[in-house]
Amino acid sequence: QVQLVESGGGLVQAGGSLRLSCAASRVTFSNRNMGWFRQAPGKEREFVASLRVKGGPYYSDSVQGRFTISRDNAKNTVYLQMNALKPEDTAVYYCAARETYSNTYTYWGQGTQVTVSS
After folding, report:
1. Distance CA 50, CA 34 (A)
2. pLDDT digits (tens, 9 = 90+) for 56-76
3. Which of 31, 43, 50, 52 has its CA 20 to 30 A from that of 78?
């Protein structure tokens, strides 16, 4: 069974940084497009960042310039470096993977909580 496992969440003060990791088993990241999403309490899940197999990263306007998505194919791991965190970044963060020919993310992690205090 495919598993994506996020880690690295926690409590941080505004202005601080966190790095989230997403490790996979039974699915290879190197030939799939990867994404990070988040869901705050009472809100719908929203797109944060994505990284295609070919092509540059994409970011939501709210995190552009503060977050960086990257991958380490050798470790089959995707990262989300989050800097200059704001209280509005508080959410459960999910990583996801999709086939390059599809717009639908097929594989999802269980999420990791990020809480930013003011």
Report:
1. 6
2. 899 999 999 999 999 998 999
3. 43
Residue 52 Cα distances to 55, 87, 95, 112, angstroms: 6, 28, 13, 22
User: Tell me, what amino acid is at 49?
Assistant: A
> What torsion, rounded to 10 degrees, do the Cα atoms 47, 55, 29, 48 define?
-10
Report CA dihedral (69, 73, 75, 78) to the nearest 10 degrees. 20
In tens, the pLDDT along 20-52 reads 999 988 878 888 999 999 999 999 999 999 999
Which class for 26: exposed (0-12), middle (13-18), buried (19 or more C-beta within 10 A)? exposed
The gap between the terminal CA atoms of the chain, to the nearest Å, is 40
